[in-house]
Specification:
- There is one protein chain.
- It is globular, with a radius of gyration of 19 Å.
- The chain has about 300 residues and is of the alpha+beta class.
- It has 10 helices and 12 strands.
- The termini are far apart.
- The protein has 2 domains: about 100 residues, PurM-like, N-terminal domain (60s Ribosomal Protein L30, Chain: A); about 170 residues, Phosphoribosyl-aminoimidazole Synthetase, Chain A, domain 2 (Alpha-Beta Complex).
Length: about 300
């Protein structure tokens, strides 16, 4: 075993091959089955990208009630998933279905990485630059649309973001010699940031003015329209996070928003920034510098 539980994926060495293994299952966040299938695939392969690897194979895990869903819906779901797996260069090689009253879908994904290119949560070093590759807000926006608090048109940005693979960002991170990486998912930016901070025994400084949010997210947070997960995340993280007084509670909640198929949070050595920037710009992939790493002991400072 090269990397065990606690990272985005497990890494196992078999002879000369590093195998990367991960599993992720989610409940529907959009109505269209094709789109949801594709989002599930992007979300499940993301943990392989967060380890600096490339996904190779996927096994589908599908829970649904045969009374509520027709085979046409399932076919569209799988078609969406396969198209996204294709884009990732991964092959659907099997799966398993379970009778389940609550619809669930996801994948166990296997991938591989070259020796010395595995990115973990534990390598961040003081003076590293923190980079985020997608905007925050999928949890707050999808739950607000479900409740009818905001117009459906706000979903477009969320869906486009969830459909984007972390492939380019992962390759650029490896090429730039990233010290640590994770993908921002259910525990929010703060939760996943803390995982890097604790595992790497450093402190992450986040610049509140530099963190990118999707449209309407800060307004919704200010109106206290956030999913329960954001509150739970903030409760969990606040013991290990110091907020500047000027950072309002709404903003703290937004930083804790649980993400589906979120971006990569990378800890890059300053000397790797030029390479990273070149590769991301060449692929027209977005990224934001959101802070830096300092000496410390597993904390986040938001200033
Ligand atoms: Co992850
Ligand atoms: Co995961």
């Amino acid at each position: 075993m090269v990397v065990g539980p606690g990272d985005d994926a497990g890494v196992f060495r078999y002879k000369n091959t590093l195998m990367i293994e991960t599993v992720d299952v989610i409940t529907p966040i959009v109505d269209d089955p094709y789109t949801f299938g594709a989002i599930c695939a992007a979300n499940s392969v993301s943990d392989v990208y967060a380890m600096g690897g490339r996904p190779l194979t996927a096994l589908a895990i599908l829970g649904f009630s045969t009374c509520d869903f027709t085979s046409a819906v399932i076919r569209r779901l799988l078609r969406g998933a396969i198209s996204k797996l294709d884009e990732a260069g991964a092959c659907l090689i099997g799966g398993h279905t379970i009778e389940d009253d609550e619809f669930k879908f996801g994948f166990a994904v296997s991938g591989t990485a070259e020796e010395h290119t595995v990115l973990t949560v534990s390598g961040a070093k003081p003076e590293d630059i923190l980079v985020l590759t997608k905007k925050i807000g999928t949890g707050i926006l999808t739950s607000a649309v479900k409740k009818g608090t905001v117009k459906k048109s706000y979903l477009k940005e969320v869906i486009d973001s969830m459909l984007m693979l972390n492939k380019t960002a992962s390759k650029a991170a490896v090429a730039a010699g990233a010290h640590a990486a994770t993908d921002v998912t259910g525990f929010g930016l703060l939760g996943h940031g803390l995982n890097i901070a604790k595992s790497s025994k450093v402190t992450l400084i986040l610049e509140s003015g530099e963190i990118p949010f999707m449209k309407k997210v800060k307004d919704l947070a200010a109106a206290d329209a956030v999913p329960k997960g954001a509150r739970n995340n903030l409760d969990y993280c606040s013991k290990k996070t110091s907020f500047a007084e000027s950072v309002p509670n709404a903003y703290r909640l937004a930083l804790s928003d649980p993400q589906t198929s979120g971006g990569l949070l990378l800890s890059l050595p300053p000397k790797g920034m030029k390479k990273f920037d070149q590769l991301m710009k060449k692929a027209q992939a977005p990224y934001w510098v959101i802070g830096e790493v300092t000496k410390g002991s597993g904390r986040i400072v938001v200033r």
